[in-house]
Amino acid sequence: MSRYDVVVVGAGPAGLSAALNAAIRHKSVLVIGPVMSEKLRRTARIDNYLGMPGCSGEAMLTQFRDQVAELPVEFLEERIQTIYDMGDFIGLLRENGEILEAQAVIVATGISFGNTIPGERRFLGRGVSACATCDAALYRGKAVIVVGYNAHSAEDARFISEVAGRTTFINRTGRPVQLGDTIRVIEDKPIAVEGDAAAERLIFKDFTLEADGFFFVRDAVKSDELVPGLRLSDDGIHAAVERDMSTNLPGIYACGDITGKPYQIAIAVGQGQLAGLSAAEYVTKRAASHR
Ligand SMILES: Cc1cc2nc3c(=O)[nH]c(=O)nc-3n(C[C@H](O)[C@H](O)[C@H](O)COP(=O)(O)OP(=O)(O)OC[C@H]3O[C@@H](n4cnc5c(N)ncnc54)[C@H](O)[C@@H]3O)c2cc1C
To answer: What is the pTM of this model?
Structure first.
């Protein structure tokens, strides 16, 4: 089996940017992952990416991918199971049990929020959000419900209430919260989000709450599941990276949402560029040292 200079895991904005930049440096590059990032597919309109105002997430990612596909980059549409440091090379375990080999790997797999309640995934991007800083402004003057599961969620509710309108905080943090007079706090367990074209109401066992926006603020799934031994940042969730996007594991780089908030496309693309350049440089230096 051939060994690639650089394998990029994840074909979202971070991964495609990394692949573009490594390929421009004449490295052999393989990108592995689903063609369409689920997050971008659900984003109807993006207004904060320079040069492409009002573009849908799907159209933007298709344009990114078309640009990368003009270079000699290979694509493989599947999910990698595990990434191992094998000493002389980095191994990537495929779904069929085969191992792919790379000199450098760029992990651009985004983040996932694990278990959700019924309706939450269905309405993501249509009244449901997981990101206060990204979406609070969409609900200016509107009624918003924040379902808070982690320690920072009360802070997010305060931020959202300043930007949006009437805010209700559903406290699932397991500890008391103080949010002043302007934010209503409810201590109960939501069981589903319902609506028609967009999310309209949050269902509890004995009552229902209506709103225009629903924020679910919970911790992301830890980022070291795919890469055993990967050091996490202080929050215990995201990959810890240096400025050049290197991780604690030689030859393994990380970029995009997996490295932490704010979760934004421009940041993912910028970090992807750094990771692509750094991985290419790593491969070049390694080849020189083996001569
Ligand atoms: C509803 C919504 C609206 C948003 N709106 C905006 C906005 O307006 N502006 C903005 O800047 N940002 C917005 N964001 C955030 C933005 O989508 C993310 O910051 C961006 O997609 C991060 O890019 P990424 O490449 O790091 O991760 P992702 O886009 O999540 O891509 C990661 C890819 O890796 C794949 N992957 C995961 N595990 C594996 C594996 N084991 N093997 C292979 N592939 C794998 C995933 O399937 C996915 O395709 C929004 C997000 C959501 C959810």
So the answer is: 0.85
